[in-house]
Design brief:
By secondary structure, this protein is of the alpha+beta class. The chain contains three helices and 14 strands. The protein has helices at 55-64, 71-88, 150-163; strands at residues 4-8, 13-17, 20-23, 29-33, 37-40, 45-49, 98-104, 111-117, 128-132, 134-137, 165-167, 175-177, 182-189, 192-200.
């Protein structure tokens, strides 16, 4: 489980994520740290993936090789791109993941975001993609996002997620605090993408997250 939060504004999209990578075979102890958001500069977009750490890298590579030329083209083709990825690489361990795609539509000129689920969820089949105006994962009770104060508002939601005990979609019976490392804020605008660290938690490789820290 990873933090993947998205809020679509009038002229920008704010994406918030953490950087902790977990060892599910070691009780959810931190295995390392890494960036979970990948910029797609040609498409004026980013992706953010939950699940295993390598999923976002493989998805971004498949997008690069897909021939999708625009954001709208990519949004239309993403379910097939991801489904083909998992079919072609059957020996790869993708686990249960979600892909967030956020960027600007060429046809409307407006920001847009979509969430694709790589496994059956809430009665929907795998590779279902939905357009969203906001997305919070891991889920906590709905929180209002303040576009006038995006950094503090986004960090507050991440802190609440950090306190929550989450189940793992890839390890039955495991519960862990799943938001750690750094709090990362990614802003997507028509003219560019900005990524920055807005907070660092005192987490350590080899140890589980201590939510009170």
């Amino acid at each position: 489980m990873s933090a993947s939060n998205c809020f679509v504004g009038n002229d920008n999209i704010q994406v918030f994520s953490d950087t902790a990578v977990y060892d599910l075979e070691n009780g959810g102890a931190i295995h390392g740290f890494g960036n979970k958001v990948v910029p797609l500069l040609h498409h004026r977009a980013v992706i953010s993936c939950t699940g295993y750490a390598w999923v976002s890298i493989i998805v971004s590579g498949c997008i690069s090789a897909s021939g999708a030329e625009t954001f709208d083209d990519l949004a239309a083709r993403l379910p097939d791109i991801v489904k083909d990825m998992t079919t072609r690489d059957r020996d790869a361990k993708f686990g249960n993941f979600e892909v967030l795609l956020a960027g600007f539509s060429e046809s409307t000129g407006e920001p847009a975001a979509y969430v694709l689920t790589g496994y059956p969820k809430n009665g929907w089949p795998a590779f279902t993609m939905k357009k969203v105006s906001s997305f919070i994962s891991p889920f906590i009770e709905r929180r209002q996002f303040d576009f006038d104060n995006p950094e503090s508002s986004g960090l507050r939601i991440l802190e609440e997620q950090r306190q929550a005990l989450c189940g793992s979609t890839d390890k039955a019976g495991l519960a862990l605090h799943a938001v750690g490392g750094c709090a990362q804020m990614t802003t997507v605008r028509k003219d560019g993408i900005e990524m920055k660290v807005i907070h660092r938690w005192p987490d350590t490789v080899g140890r589980p997250i201590e939510a009170a820290a």
